[in-house]
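This part of the workshop introduces the protein records we will be handling. An example says more than a description, so a record of this kind follows.
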Amino acid sequence: MSAILRSSKIISVLLIVVLASGCSWFGGKKDSSQTRRDSRSLEVPPELTQPKTSDSMTIPVVTPEQAGYGPRPVDQQTPVVDATLLPAPAGARVIQVGDLRWAELDGRPETVWPEAQGFLRSLGFEISYEDPRLGILETNWLSNRAYRNVGFWKSLFGGVAVTGLRDRYRLRLERTDDPMLTRLYLTHQGLIEDVVEDDSGENINRVWRWRPADAELEAEVLQRFLVFRGLDEQQAEEITKPKPRLERAVLQDISGGQLLVVNDNFARTWRHVGVAIDRLGLNVTDRNRSEGLYYLSLSDEFIEQHKQDGGLLKKWFGDGDEKTAPKKFVLKLEERGETTTVSLHDENGQLDNSAMAKVLNELFYQQLR
């Protein structure tokens, strides 16, 4: 009997426990008073002070504009060079007349300048000369293979890259009437390695000779730059395709010198002449567009390389004669109706009829015709 009573007591205790906890097992609500007590601020004893809080611990509310999803004023846009994670596609247009090509880029020259520097360095070039006042960047000489086998372009152009060629490039930036639009010219200069024997035929030397500017290389590197700025690869390739070259200039002998007549207006001829100067590797010490003047000087490198080439300078000069040749010129452009004349003058403003001037006139003719 006692055993039955003990069993009944145990069963009763278990039923009480089950009934007491049943509401929590079957979805019963928590005591709201307990929740309120848990959410109250920490009570600080009288002898202590309430700890200070600051805005640095507060999660800020970010607007769509601050997050980069909304529009921002043009002058507050982050330059492409700073947008290392996901640069926005950069607007660009390429204008081409004959084999003259230039790009018009969305952005101030002050923004495009560091982009151009970064692009050239990304190909492995060093900046050997720069003049922000004239907007000119010029690279060092680099093996053709060294910069053509870079990144994505290795698969496209690596197979045709050859040794024995060196290249350098000059980028020139110009402001336009639109402060948010920059005009960019990219020109190529090239060398080719040659083997030269002395008179005895026993000694062989390797020398670097000038080779003509390569319009296709200019188009290729310009295409790379547009992709570097964020333009789609297919779009960049399409807008930089070279177009057929048209004859548009004639070199005339006149009293006291020579005159190059270009069948184009002043604005376009000015651009053509600027590109020709870059391709020939002449130094621009100053320029005055309103008067149509380029102030030029010849480097020793220019003279030596063209002499070695066995071309015009070899024809006009013997050994040492270049030391007495003039090395500074003023190139003058004048608009005459539907044509523009280009002529070389000495430092005194007189039409230059020297042998060196004739060499330069022929070189300009080859570039502008």
The longest strand covers residues 181-197. The CA atoms of residues 112 and 280 lie 24 Å apart.
